[in-house]
Amino acid sequence: MRLLALVSDAFGGAGGIARYNRDLLTALAAGGATVVALPREGRAQSGTLPSAIDQRAPRGRVGLIAAALLTARQEGPFDAVFCGHINLATAATIVAAFLRAPLWLQLHGVEAWEPLSRAQRWASERAALITAVSRHTRHRFLGLARVEPWRVRVLPNTVDHRFAPGPKPDALLERHGLRGKTVLLTVGRLSSAERGKGHDRVIAVLPALAASRPDIVYLIVGEGGDRSRLEAMAQAAGIADRVLFAGAVSDSELPEYYRTADVFVMPSVQEGFGIVLLEAAASGLPVVAGNIDGSPDALAGGTLGLLVDPYDPSALVRAIDRAIEAPRPASEAVARYDFAHFAQRVAELASELVSSARPRRAITRPVGAG
Question: What domains does the chain contain, in order, with CATH numbers?
Protein backbone atom coordinates (compact mmCIF):
# COMPACT_ATOMS: atom_id res chain seq x y z
CA MET A 1 0.00 0.00 0.00
CA ARG A 2 1.25 3.47 -0.92
CA LEU A 3 -0.35 6.30 1.02
CA LEU A 4 -0.19 10.06 0.54
CA ALA A 5 -0.85 11.82 3.87
CA LEU A 6 -1.85 15.47 4.29
CA VAL A 7 -1.46 16.38 7.96
CA SER A 8 -1.41 19.51 10.10
CA ASP A 9 1.73 18.14 11.72
CA ALA A 10 3.20 14.80 12.70
CA PHE A 11 6.87 13.99 13.28
CA GLY A 12 8.55 16.99 14.83
CA GLY A 13 5.24 18.55 15.89
CA ALA A 14 3.89 19.12 19.39
CA GLY A 15 0.50 18.33 20.87
CA GLY A 16 -2.04 15.54 20.78
CA ILE A 17 -2.92 15.72 17.08
CA ALA A 18 0.73 15.53 16.01
CA ARG A 19 1.19 12.56 18.34
CA TYR A 20 -1.88 10.80 16.96
CA ASN A 21 -0.70 11.31 13.37
CA ARG A 22 2.73 9.95 14.26
CA ASP A 23 1.19 6.86 15.82
CA LEU A 24 -1.15 6.25 12.90
CA LEU A 25 1.51 6.68 10.21
CA THR A 26 3.92 4.51 12.21
CA ALA A 27 1.24 1.81 12.49
CA LEU A 28 0.66 1.92 8.73
CA ALA A 29 4.39 1.63 8.09
CA ALA A 30 4.65 -1.28 10.54
CA GLY A 31 1.91 -2.99 8.54
CA GLY A 32 3.90 -2.75 5.32
CA ALA A 33 2.68 0.55 3.87
CA THR A 34 4.96 3.20 2.43
CA VAL A 35 3.93 6.75 3.27
CA VAL A 36 4.67 10.17 1.83
CA ALA A 37 3.61 12.69 4.49
CA LEU A 38 3.10 16.37 3.68
CA PRO A 39 2.79 18.46 6.87
CA ARG A 40 1.40 21.96 7.12
CA GLU A 41 3.81 22.51 10.02
CA GLY A 42 6.23 20.51 12.16
CA ARG A 43 9.63 19.38 10.94
CA ALA A 44 10.95 15.89 11.62
CA GLN A 45 14.31 15.56 13.32
CA SER A 46 16.97 13.56 11.52
CA GLY A 47 16.74 9.86 12.34
CA THR A 48 13.28 9.99 13.94
CA LEU A 49 11.28 8.68 10.97
CA PRO A 50 10.50 5.01 10.37
CA SER A 51 12.20 3.89 7.17
CA ALA A 52 8.92 3.52 5.28
CA ILE A 53 7.82 7.11 5.97
CA ASP A 54 9.03 10.07 3.94
CA GLN A 55 7.90 13.27 5.66
CA ARG A 56 8.66 16.35 3.59
CA ALA A 57 9.38 19.89 4.76
CA PRO A 58 6.39 21.85 6.13
CA ARG A 59 4.53 23.86 3.50
CA GLY A 60 2.06 26.05 5.34
CA ARG A 61 -1.63 26.17 4.52
CA VAL A 62 -1.26 27.81 1.10
CA GLY A 63 1.55 25.64 -0.20
CA LEU A 64 0.18 22.32 0.98
CA ILE A 65 -2.32 21.68 -1.79
CA ALA A 66 0.18 22.65 -4.50
CA ALA A 67 2.78 20.32 -2.98
CA ALA A 68 0.20 17.54 -2.70
CA LEU A 69 -0.91 17.87 -6.34
CA LEU A 70 2.68 18.00 -7.53
CA THR A 71 3.54 14.91 -5.48
CA ALA A 72 0.47 13.10 -6.79
CA ARG A 73 1.36 13.91 -10.41
CA GLN A 74 5.08 13.15 -10.18
CA GLU A 75 5.10 10.26 -7.71
CA GLY A 76 1.72 8.55 -8.18
CA PRO A 77 -0.08 6.28 -8.22
CA PHE A 78 -1.06 6.10 -4.55
CA ASP A 79 -3.54 3.57 -3.18
CA ALA A 80 -5.18 6.03 -0.79
CA VAL A 81 -5.02 9.57 0.61
CA PHE A 82 -5.05 10.19 4.36
CA CYS A 83 -6.24 13.56 5.66
CA GLY A 84 -5.22 14.19 9.26
CA HIS A 85 -7.50 17.16 10.00
CA ILE A 86 -10.87 18.33 8.72
CA ASN A 87 -9.41 21.77 7.96
CA LEU A 88 -7.36 20.06 5.23
CA ALA A 89 -10.25 17.98 3.92
CA THR A 90 -11.03 20.11 0.86
CA ALA A 91 -7.44 19.94 -0.38
CA ALA A 92 -7.26 16.21 0.37
CA THR A 93 -10.50 15.54 -1.51
CA ILE A 94 -9.18 17.32 -4.60
CA VAL A 95 -5.94 15.34 -4.44
CA ALA A 96 -7.80 12.05 -3.94
CA ALA A 97 -10.01 12.81 -6.95
CA PHE A 98 -6.92 13.58 -9.06
CA LEU A 99 -5.38 10.25 -8.02
CA ARG A 100 -8.71 8.41 -8.33
CA ALA A 101 -7.94 7.01 -4.88
CA PRO A 102 -10.13 6.63 -1.76
CA LEU A 103 -9.90 9.27 0.98
CA TRP A 104 -9.45 8.53 4.69
CA LEU A 105 -10.43 11.49 6.89
CA GLN A 106 -9.45 11.76 10.57
CA LEU A 107 -11.52 13.66 13.19
CA HIS A 108 -10.11 14.70 16.57
CA GLY A 109 -12.40 16.96 18.60
CA VAL A 110 -13.88 20.42 18.68
CA GLU A 111 -13.05 21.09 15.02
CA ALA A 112 -15.62 18.42 14.17
CA TRP A 113 -18.22 19.51 16.75
CA GLU A 114 -19.05 22.96 15.42
CA PRO A 115 -21.07 23.70 12.27
CA LEU A 116 -19.02 22.73 9.22
CA SER A 117 -18.32 25.03 6.33
CA ARG A 118 -19.87 24.15 2.99
CA ALA A 119 -16.45 23.03 1.74
CA GLN A 120 -15.86 20.84 4.81
CA ARG A 121 -19.27 19.18 4.40
CA TRP A 122 -18.62 18.62 0.69
CA ALA A 123 -15.26 17.03 1.42
CA SER A 124 -16.45 14.93 4.36
CA GLU A 125 -19.30 13.46 2.37
CA ARG A 126 -16.84 12.22 -0.26
CA ALA A 127 -14.52 10.41 2.15
CA ALA A 128 -14.53 6.63 1.81
CA LEU A 129 -13.56 6.20 5.47
CA ILE A 130 -13.78 8.59 8.44
CA THR A 131 -12.22 7.79 11.80
CA ALA A 132 -12.90 9.65 15.05
CA VAL A 133 -10.88 9.48 18.26
CA SER A 134 -13.98 9.00 20.44
CA ARG A 135 -17.66 8.13 20.36
CA HIS A 136 -18.44 11.68 21.43
CA THR A 137 -16.65 13.18 18.42
CA ARG A 138 -18.31 10.63 16.13
CA HIS A 139 -21.75 11.48 17.51
CA ARG A 140 -21.25 15.24 17.21
CA PHE A 141 -19.91 14.94 13.66
CA LEU A 142 -22.79 12.74 12.47
CA GLY A 143 -25.17 15.49 13.52
CA LEU A 144 -23.41 17.89 11.13
CA ALA A 145 -22.66 15.94 7.95
CA ARG A 146 -24.78 13.78 5.66
CA VAL A 147 -22.64 10.68 6.06
CA GLU A 148 -23.83 7.12 6.61
CA PRO A 149 -23.06 6.24 10.25
CA TRP A 150 -21.27 3.00 9.35
CA ARG A 151 -18.68 5.00 7.40
CA VAL A 152 -17.52 6.75 10.59
CA ARG A 153 -15.46 4.48 12.84
CA VAL A 154 -13.97 5.05 16.28
CA LEU A 155 -10.17 4.77 16.41
CA PRO A 156 -9.02 5.94 19.87
CA ASN A 157 -5.56 7.18 20.75
CA THR A 158 -2.82 4.86 21.85
CA VAL A 159 -0.59 5.42 24.89
CA ASP A 160 3.20 5.45 24.85
CA HIS A 161 4.91 2.70 26.86
CA ARG A 162 7.02 5.39 28.61
CA PHE A 163 3.99 6.20 30.76
CA ALA A 164 4.08 3.58 33.50
CA PRO A 165 3.88 3.46 37.31
CA GLY A 166 6.98 4.26 39.31
CA PRO A 167 8.21 5.89 42.52
CA LYS A 168 7.91 9.61 43.04
CA PRO A 169 11.06 11.20 41.60
CA ASP A 170 13.21 12.88 44.24
CA ALA A 171 14.44 15.57 41.86
CA LEU A 172 10.94 16.86 41.11
CA LEU A 173 9.83 16.62 44.72
CA GLU A 174 12.76 18.84 45.64
CA ARG A 175 12.34 21.21 42.70
CA HIS A 176 8.72 21.99 43.50
CA GLY A 177 8.72 21.51 47.29
CA LEU A 178 6.32 18.56 47.14
CA ARG A 179 7.64 16.27 49.87
CA GLY A 180 4.86 15.28 52.23
CA LYS A 181 2.20 16.84 49.97
CA THR A 182 -0.92 15.38 48.38
CA VAL A 183 -0.44 16.40 44.77
CA LEU A 184 -3.21 17.02 42.26
CA LEU A 185 -1.93 17.29 38.68
CA THR A 186 -3.23 18.66 35.38
CA VAL A 187 -1.25 18.58 32.12
CA GLY A 188 -2.38 20.85 29.30
CA ARG A 189 -1.78 24.09 27.46
CA LEU A 190 -2.79 27.26 29.30
CA SER A 191 -4.48 28.88 26.35
CA SER A 192 -7.54 31.10 26.38
CA ALA A 193 -8.88 28.88 23.60
CA GLU A 194 -8.57 25.85 25.90
CA ARG A 195 -10.14 27.17 29.09
CA GLY A 196 -12.62 24.34 28.81
CA LYS A 197 -9.97 21.97 30.15
CA GLY A 198 -11.03 23.08 33.64
CA HIS A 199 -7.91 24.37 35.40
CA ASP A 200 -10.05 27.16 36.86
CA ARG A 201 -12.64 24.68 38.11
CA VAL A 202 -9.97 22.83 40.08
CA ILE A 203 -8.61 26.08 41.55
CA ALA A 204 -12.16 27.06 42.55
CA VAL A 205 -12.64 23.91 44.67
CA LEU A 206 -9.14 23.84 46.16
CA PRO A 207 -10.13 25.84 49.30
CA ALA A 208 -12.83 23.27 50.08
CA LEU A 209 -10.37 20.42 49.60
CA ALA A 210 -7.73 22.14 51.72
CA ALA A 211 -10.17 22.50 54.62
CA SER A 212 -9.92 18.76 55.26
CA ARG A 213 -6.56 18.11 53.58
CA PRO A 214 -4.10 20.81 54.66
CA ASP A 215 -1.26 19.13 52.74
CA ILE A 216 -2.97 19.38 49.35
CA VAL A 217 -1.38 21.25 46.42
CA TYR A 218 -2.25 21.62 42.73
CA LEU A 219 0.56 21.18 40.20
CA ILE A 220 -0.08 22.50 36.70
CA VAL A 221 2.15 21.40 33.81
CA GLY A 222 1.86 23.54 30.69
CA GLU A 223 2.37 27.08 29.54
CA GLY A 224 0.37 29.70 27.68
CA GLY A 225 -1.29 33.09 27.76
CA ASP A 226 -3.97 32.07 30.25
CA ARG A 227 -1.48 31.48 33.06
CA SER A 228 -1.75 35.02 34.42
CA ARG A 229 -5.54 34.70 34.77
CA LEU A 230 -5.17 31.43 36.69
CA GLU A 231 -2.48 32.93 38.94
CA ALA A 232 -4.75 35.87 39.72
CA MET A 233 -7.61 33.51 40.46
CA ALA A 234 -5.49 31.52 42.93
CA GLN A 235 -4.28 34.74 44.55
CA ALA A 236 -7.84 36.04 44.97
CA ALA A 237 -8.92 32.76 46.57
CA GLY A 238 -6.03 32.91 49.07
CA ILE A 239 -4.45 29.69 47.80
CA ALA A 240 -1.59 30.99 45.64
CA ASP A 241 0.85 28.94 47.74
CA ARG A 242 -1.09 25.77 46.86
CA VAL A 243 -1.12 26.26 43.06
CA LEU A 244 2.24 25.50 41.49
CA PHE A 245 2.98 26.26 37.84
CA ALA A 246 5.69 24.00 36.41
CA GLY A 247 5.56 25.65 32.98
CA ALA A 248 6.36 23.78 29.78
CA VAL A 249 7.94 20.37 30.31
CA SER A 250 9.99 18.32 27.85
CA ASP A 251 8.59 15.05 26.50
CA SER A 252 11.45 13.19 28.16
CA GLU A 253 10.57 14.57 31.62
CA LEU A 254 6.77 14.36 31.34
CA PRO A 255 6.45 10.73 32.56
CA GLU A 256 8.25 11.73 35.76
CA TYR A 257 5.75 14.52 36.39
CA TYR A 258 2.89 12.02 36.29
CA ARG A 259 4.71 9.88 38.87
CA THR A 260 5.05 12.93 41.13
CA ALA A 261 1.27 13.19 41.58
CA ASP A 262 -1.30 11.39 43.71
CA VAL A 263 -4.34 12.20 41.53
CA PHE A 264 -4.73 13.49 38.00
CA VAL A 265 -7.69 15.83 37.60
CA MET A 266 -9.02 17.50 34.46
CA PRO A 267 -12.75 18.31 34.51
CA SER A 268 -12.77 19.28 30.85
CA VAL A 269 -15.70 20.04 28.57
CA GLN A 270 -13.74 20.14 25.30
CA GLU A 271 -11.70 16.94 24.94
CA GLY A 272 -12.00 15.04 21.71
CA PHE A 273 -10.39 12.15 23.56
CA GLY A 274 -8.03 13.39 26.28
CA ILE A 275 -4.72 11.60 25.76
CA VAL A 276 -3.34 13.05 29.02
CA LEU A 277 -6.07 11.19 30.93
CA LEU A 278 -4.87 7.94 29.41
CA GLU A 279 -1.23 8.80 30.09
CA ALA A 280 -2.11 9.46 33.72
CA ALA A 281 -3.98 6.17 34.09
CA ALA A 282 -1.09 4.30 32.44
CA SER A 283 1.22 5.98 34.98
CA GLY A 284 -0.83 4.42 37.77
CA LEU A 285 -2.73 7.53 38.83
CA PRO A 286 -6.37 7.69 39.94
CA VAL A 287 -8.03 10.06 37.46
CA VAL A 288 -10.94 12.49 37.74
CA ALA A 289 -12.39 13.78 34.46
CA GLY A 290 -15.50 15.33 32.98
CA ASN A 291 -18.37 13.25 31.66
CA ILE A 292 -19.71 15.42 28.83
CA ASP A 293 -17.00 15.29 26.15
CA GLY A 294 -14.63 12.61 24.82
CA SER A 295 -13.04 11.96 28.22
CA PRO A 296 -15.14 8.83 28.96
CA ASP A 297 -13.53 7.09 25.97
CA ALA A 298 -10.04 7.79 27.35
CA LEU A 299 -11.09 6.29 30.69
CA ALA A 300 -12.85 3.25 29.19
CA GLY A 301 -16.25 4.51 30.29
CA GLY A 302 -15.12 4.98 33.89
CA THR A 303 -13.05 1.79 34.29
CA LEU A 304 -9.85 3.83 34.48
CA GLY A 305 -11.11 6.78 36.49
CA LEU A 306 -13.98 8.76 37.95
CA LEU A 307 -16.28 10.69 35.62
CA VAL A 308 -18.04 13.73 37.05
CA ASP A 309 -20.22 16.63 35.94
CA PRO A 310 -17.52 19.27 35.38
CA TYR A 311 -19.97 22.07 36.18
CA ASP A 312 -20.84 20.71 39.64
CA PRO A 313 -18.22 21.92 42.19
CA SER A 314 -19.49 19.74 45.04
CA ALA A 315 -19.41 16.65 42.82
CA LEU A 316 -15.86 17.54 41.80
CA VAL A 317 -14.78 17.84 45.45
CA ARG A 318 -16.33 14.46 46.29
CA ALA A 319 -14.70 12.82 43.27
CA ILE A 320 -11.24 14.18 44.11
CA ASP A 321 -11.62 13.04 47.73
CA ARG A 322 -12.60 9.56 46.54
CA ALA A 323 -9.72 9.46 44.06
CA ILE A 324 -7.16 10.33 46.74
CA GLU A 325 -8.28 7.26 48.69
CA ALA A 326 -8.83 5.06 45.64
CA PRO A 327 -6.59 2.15 44.62
CA ARG A 328 -4.40 2.64 41.57
CA PRO A 329 -5.96 1.52 38.25
CA ALA A 330 -5.08 -2.00 37.12
CA SER A 331 -2.49 -2.03 34.35
CA GLU A 332 -4.45 -4.60 32.32
CA ALA A 333 -7.29 -2.09 31.97
CA VAL A 334 -4.90 0.23 30.11
CA ALA A 335 -3.67 -2.55 27.82
CA ARG A 336 -6.57 -2.07 25.40
CA TYR A 337 -4.93 1.22 24.40
CA ASP A 338 -1.45 -0.16 23.71
CA PHE A 339 0.21 0.32 20.34
CA ALA A 340 -0.19 -3.32 19.28
CA HIS A 341 -4.00 -3.08 19.53
CA PHE A 342 -3.98 0.30 17.79
CA ALA A 343 -1.76 -0.98 14.95
CA GLN A 344 -3.96 -4.02 14.42
CA ARG A 345 -7.06 -1.83 14.10
CA VAL A 346 -5.27 0.55 11.73
CA ALA A 347 -4.21 -2.39 9.55
CA GLU A 348 -7.79 -3.67 9.39
CA LEU A 349 -9.15 -0.27 8.39
CA ALA A 350 -6.42 0.27 5.79
CA SER A 351 -7.07 -3.13 4.23
CA GLU A 352 -10.78 -2.44 4.06
CA LEU A 353 -10.20 1.00 2.58
CA VAL A 354 -7.95 -0.27 -0.21
CA SER A 355 -10.28 -3.18 -0.92
CA SER A 356 -12.96 -0.61 -1.78
CA ALA A 357 -10.51 0.06 -4.62
CA ARG A 358 -12.59 2.00 -7.05
CA PRO A 359 -12.07 5.78 -7.17
CA ARG A 360 -14.11 7.85 -4.74
CA ARG A 361 -16.22 4.87 -3.76
CA ALA A 362 -17.22 4.46 -0.13
CA ILE A 363 -16.62 1.30 1.87
CA THR A 364 -19.56 -0.90 1.03
CA ARG A 365 -19.68 -3.41 3.87
CA PRO A 366 -21.23 -1.90 7.02
CA VAL A 367 -19.39 -3.47 9.96
CA GLY A 368 -20.40 -1.13 12.74
CA ALA A 369 -18.99 2.09 14.06
CA GLY A 370 -16.44 0.80 16.54
Answer: 2-158+338-356 (3.40.50.2000), 170-334 (3.40.50.2000)
